[in-house]
Design brief:
The complex is a heterotrimer. By secondary structure, chain B is of the alpha/beta class. Chain B is 27% helix and 26% strand. Classes of the chains: A alpha/beta, B alpha/beta, C alpha/beta.
């Protein structure tokens, strides 16, 4: 494999089923993509992302539930946290486009693929 | 609190040495045509912690399930990783296998190599295989760090406290009692019935408001499981799901207490009260609200419409008074906000009243001044039709062009910029102005602040989600019924109250409320008592600082925690985690994935 | 007939739209066993095919799928899809329903939902899930998030080539499958049979469904859905991106000429919602709603309407007398304005949506349960000021649109009270 690995953080509530919908429709994307699922990405501290880059992960896409998020206030907290991660990435010289916070619904197939293809471009230049 | 909440078993890690079984499914070629399942099993067989790795045509089949059960029995497998289709299809199937074989079902990890690998990497067999190996290895790392989980149970009072004894409150109590629960109605007024006691003839049944209330009250009084307290002034509400305490004052001044597993807020509405001078209200004679008009009409002598002795030959209905207000056009309420919502029932009520006037007093001339006629209900359009046929004259204005009422002793002059006659300003004379007023929520600020109940921008109580959880408040165990949530008519309040009772009955279906085990858990050895985490928590009372043996500690109330993990991210010592989804698991998974 | 499948449950729920699903869950979560019968191959009803829903604009699929999954995994709920209720008899305190499982022509127990049959099948059909805007195979899983994920074969279109049978890794294809009778015994019945929209062919003045760019709101939902037939909004006749879209309100409601004098309650709001979604996906398009009265009466609806106005969607108070088309299939709408000027005018648009109303989905009197209907075929309650679910038939309750048009929040709320009435009834038996 030539590409570096992309870590995709999905939610039980919406983006993980969204990733399943892409498979059910037999749409394709590259195999350097590793999907993990959580109740909500708000649980990850800033250093989780930085450590992942240290371990050799090329790019991280956080696919949150956005406004469909079942947890109160979680999305606002998550976006603030990600903003702080960007600051720390900048300080460490990690390109900002290697981390992306986005919202994916249970049937957002096209948006899912678009996020992956954009991240592929970002990690290709790492 | 601690005696109320018990866990079925301790949360301690399995003391046994972890022995992971890995099972790779072919899915009849769906996976194995793309992914080299034998290579995946072979790679996993060598992975630390794994005692056996197998591949099989259909893991979900009964033969496939038997493979796992046999390994649990014969090889002592006590944790499993199944790499197959999406967990949405078969995660529960495999948890069931573990449970039947005597292993805690949460010591299972489901890896998706169909929807998220073989079906999306058709052209890259090697890549898909490498990915499946990495995902399975990450699964092993995760399951090695999993704890046995058990449902948390909260002992609950088998009783529902219904606050408010109007039609919604009575219906909620009746429905709860119908299911066998005790219900206690707490009504502040001296009698049951709420706002209906003041209303005249009502759509859709044509019965008088008090008669509708009386039908429900008769059912309530006949139900042994319902206790009614009228004249009850609520003083203090406390507790949490399963264990609420409502303290109230009796009419004789004595304090009483109701313990309840669930609370139904059926606190109802108030009619919008026009401010002084709003269309002449409170200043000119014969400017009344629709509810006032309905009450007065009951007293009118037969044959002619007269109010306080004065005959009414013409009346003008002005809609949307206190509803659909626009900033800059309307005067704001005491809190500085205008009522920008539609009060839903007033169009139908107004036209139903117009029908009655025309029926009893056909000579009375009626003007109906409106923005949109919202007769949405099944028969409501008939009221509109009938009014038109009976000669009610409709005038329609835009929101910015409010009608203007000037009054003198001879009556009222209403100026309307009528869009139905292409924006011409019409002047009409009327003996009576009837303001079709909307609804505002009752003042429940005391309970709202004590229990931190959420309200929406319209000041009515705010449900968690209009479709997923339409009668539940964010506070577990508290439900909303009737017009405390939003304006609605009697049939709609019946539906809402019945559903509020249904949710209470579901909650109290067993003496112990089982809660999801996926809540935050504090490792007391690691917690330094720094106090950062409670500030992150959005659920009041779910996470607080406490003291144990002189040491400051974070403490989770599992009955209130929703398991979002917002607290996890800020803990400097990783002392707090969501059970089943710990940071250590994810670190190890990422390390396994990242490893070359 | 000793091998007839028999199911016993506390309650039988007819229909698995959002009202039926919610009623079943609200009963099962209280400890009662429930059997659901659904005529379509998937549970989920109309809601699962919608794009986003008002007033919160959450994705309809994201809200419906968890409900569908809870029902299908619930230990106390048995679901029969692609099955019809042929008759229900009451004997004493027990209802006995005669149900037919229609053949899918596959072994439902063995199928692993892999779609290999669908991939192999060479015959395409118009896809009714996509409102005819897309195509599907003669053997196919009805839609992405259908539950159960089982394919259905349409034998009237099958050419018996055997490609599906050869492709199936589990040897599931059964060309000779027959309809199978099922007997369900229950103590209470909840009717949740929902609605159909007024037909496109209802009004001659609106083109009788013959104008390609005059579409139904359900078709518009599919065009707007993130997983819709084209993946974007295109008009049917020529695949052009529409620059001007109009909604004709009350095109099937408040209209005595077609026997629907009542207001259908949802059309104002779905039109406003679709207009908002359209202005999101086609930012430069002109969107017009021709209306009589905007009925935004639910919680948060008036604010939703105000947002739409602020976004530049134009609301025109006008009666639509006629919809025709020009030589390029551009719909031409003849309107009589209620404000400004009275002269009729003709306005050309690229795409027109007829805001259809709601009709009863099923004549439930065919079950002879003593249930009474109102003049329009919806279930009449015994006393709606006492209970929102009790019908004239003892032990028979009604949930959702079967009683008259209502939107999703109202249907969900309604279903809970129907479940509660059924629970109380069963308990007192």
């Amino acid at each position: 494999m030539t590409h570096r690995k992309i870590l995709i953080i999905t939610t039980n509530h919406s983006s993980y089923p969204g990733a399943d919908a892409v498979g059910q429709a037999r749409m394709g994307y590259d195999a350097n993509t590793y999907i993990i699922r959580v109740p909500d990405p708000v649980m990850f501290p800033e250093d989780f992302y930085l450590n992942a880059f240290d371990k050799g992960i090329g790019g991280i896409i956080i696919m949150s539930s956005g406004s469909d998020c079942p947890y109160e206030g979680a999305y606002e907290r998550l976006s603030k946290r990600v903003a702080r991660v960007y600051e720390q990435m900048k300080a460490k010289g990690i390109a900002a486009n290697r981390l992306k916070l986005t919202t994916i619904c249970t049937v957002c197939r096209a948006a899912f693929l678009k996020e992956i293809s954009e991240m592929q471009k970002a990690v290709a230049s790492v | 609190m601690e005696d109320k909440i018990k866990e079925e078993a301790s949360r301690d890690n399995y003391r046994q040495e972890p022995k992971v079984g890995v099972y790779v499914c072919h899915c009849g070629g769906n996976i194995s045509d793309i992914i080299d399942v034998k290579a995946v099993a072979a790679a996993l067989a060598k992975y630390p912690g794994v005692v056996v790795a197998r591949e099989y045509a259909f893991m979900c089949s009964s033969n496939g399930q038997d493979l796992i059960a046999d390994d649990i029995k014969n090889l002592g497998v006590n944790r499993t990783v199944v790499a197959a289709c999406s967990p949405s299809l078969h995660e529960l199937t495999f948890r069931g296998v573990l449970q039947r074989a005597g292993v805690n079902p949460y010591l299972h990890e489901h890896i998706n190599i169909r929807e998220q690998a073989s079906w999306v990497h058709k052209a890259d067999h090697a890549g898909a295989t490498a990915k499946a190996i990495k995902l399975a290895q990450a699964g092993v790392e995760k399951v090695l760090r999993k704890d046995a989980l058990n449902a948390i149970r909260v002992a609950a009072e088998q009783r529902v406290a219904v606050i408010g004894g109007g039609v919604a409150g009575m219906r909620a109590a009746l429905s709860a009692a119908g299911k066998g629960l005790e219900a206690v109605i707490l009504e502040k007024a001296p009698r049951l019935g709420g706002k209906l006691l003041e209303l005249g003839k009502m759509y859709p049944s044509g019965e008088e408001g008090p008669a509708v209330a009386a039908k429900l009250e008769a059912l309530v009084r006949a139900e042994k499981k319902i206790t009614v307290h009228t004249g009850a002034g609520i003083e203090f509400v406390s507790g949490f799901v399963g264990n609420f305490v409502v303290n109230f004052k009796n009419p004789d001044g004595r304090m009483e207490q109701v313990k309840a597993g669930a609370i139904v807020m059926a606190t109802g509405y108030e009619h919008y009260k026009p401010h002084n001078g709003e269309f002449g209200y409170g200043e000119a004679a014969n400017v009344v609200t629709l509810p006032e008009f309905l009450a007065l009409m009951k007293k009118s002598p037969a044959g002619r419409l007269a109010l306080a002795g004065q005959e009414i030959k013409s009346l003008a209905l002005i809609h949307c008074v206190g509803s659909r207000q626009v900033e800059g056009v309307h005067k704001p309420q005491a809190d500085g906000k205008v009522n920008d919502y539609c009060s839903r029932v007033c169009c139908s009520s107004a036209l139903y009243a117009a029908n009655q006037v025309k029926e009893k007093y056909p000579g009375v001339r009626i003007y109906d001044i409106y923005r949109d006629i919202r007769t949405y209900g099944m028969q409501h359009e008939e009221y509109y039709d009938k009014a038109s046929k009976d000669g009610v004259l409709f005038l329609r204005h835009n929101e910015a062009d409010q009608p203007v009422v000037t009054s003198d002793r001879t009556g009222h002059l209403v100026k309307v910029k009528d869009v139905l006659t292409w924006g011409e300003e019409l002047e009409l004379k009327a003996d009576l102005i009837v303001l079709v007023t909307g609804m505002m929520p009752s003042d429940i600020s005391l309970i709202r602040s004590q229990m931190k109940l959420p309200a929406s921008a319209d000041r009515f109580l705010q449900e968690v989600h209009p479709k997923l959880r339409p009668v539940e408040l964010a506070n577990s165990g508290i439900f909303v019924a009737g017009t405390a949530q939003y304006p609605m008519d009697v049939p709609e309040a019946m539906a809402s109250a019945g559903t509020a009772a249904a949710k209470a009955a579901i909650l109290l279906a067993e003496p112990d409320i089982p809660l999801e085990p996926f809540v935050a858990v504090v490792d007391e050895h690691k917690c330094t008592g720094c106090g950062l985490c409670p500030a992150e928590c959005s659920y009041d009372g779910a996470l607080m600082m406490t003291e144990k043996n002189g040491k400051k500690l974070a403490q989770v109330n599992p009955a209130l925690c929703k398991g979002c993990g917002a607290c996890v991210a800020v803990c400097p010592t990783r002392a707090i985690n969501v059970a089943g989804w710990t940071l250590d698991q994810f670190d190890a998974m990422v390390a396994a994935i990242a490893k070359e | 007939m000793s091998d007839i499948e028999r199911i016993e449950a506390d309650a039988l729920v007819v229909g698995s739209g959002i009202a039926g699903l919610q009623a079943a869950l609200d009963l099962a979560d209280q400890g009662y066993s429930v059997a659901i019968v659904e005529k379509a191959p998937s549970i989920g009803g109309k809601m699962i095919s919608l794009s986003k829903v008002f007033p919160t604009l959450d994705c309809a699929s994201c809200i419906t799928t968890p409900r569908m999954a809870s029902v299908s995994h619930h230990p106390r709920i048995t679901t029969l899809t692609y099955s019809t209720v042929d008759a229900i008899k009451r004997e004493g305190k027990t209802f006995t329903a005669a149900v037919t499982r229609k053949p899918r022509y596959i072994d439902e127990k063995e199928c692993i939902s892999c779609k290999r049959c669908e991939e192999a099948c060479p015959v395409f059909l118009p896809d009714e899930y996509e409102q005819g805007l897309g195509a599907k195979k003669t053997i196919s899983i009805p839609f992405t998030n259908a539950i159960p994920q089982l394919p259905v074969m349409h034998p009237e279109h099958c050419i018996r080539c055997g490609a599906c049978a050869r492709a199936c890794p589990k040897d599931c294809i059964e060309f000779l499958q027959e309809p199978a009778p099922v007997e369900i015994k229950a103590k209470a019945v909840i009717l949740a049979t929902g609605y159909e929209t007024t037909p496109m062919t209802a009004k001659k003045q609106y083109g009788l469904g013959n104008l390609p760019n005059v579409i139904s709101p359900m078709a518009a939902e599919r065009l707007l859905a993130p997983h819709g037939p084209y993946g974007r909004v295109l008009r049917p006749s020529d695949g052009k991106v529409p620059g001007s879209i109009a909604y004709v309100q009350c095109a099937g409601s408040r209209d005595k000429s077609i026997g629907v004098p009542y207001c259908s309650r949802v059309c104002c709001m779905y039109a406003i919602k679709q207009a908002i979604l359209l202005s999101g996906s086609l930012p430069i398009a002109d969107i017009t709603i021709y209306y009589m009265d905007i009925r935004a009466f639910g919680k948060g609806y008036e604010q939703f309407y105000n947002n739409a106005r602020a976004m530049g969607i134009s609301f025109v108070k006008a009666k639509v007398a006629r919809v025709t088309e020009d030589a390029e299939h551009n719909p031409v709408v003849r309107i009589e304005r209620q404000e400004g000027t009275s002269a009729p005018e003709e306005v050309k648009h690229d795409l027109v949506v007829l805001s259809q109303g709601l009709l009863p989905g099923c004549d439930v009197t065919k079950f002879s349960l003593g249930v009474e209907l109102n003049d329009f075929g919806f279930v009449q309650l015994s006393d709606e000021t006492i209970s929102s679910a009790v019908t004239a038939g003892a032990g028979v309750f009604a949930a959702g649109v079967v009683k008259g048009p209502r939107d999703i929040p109202d249907s969900v709320v309604d279903a809970g009270s129907a479940a509660m009435e059924a629970a109380a009834y069963i308990r007192k038996l």
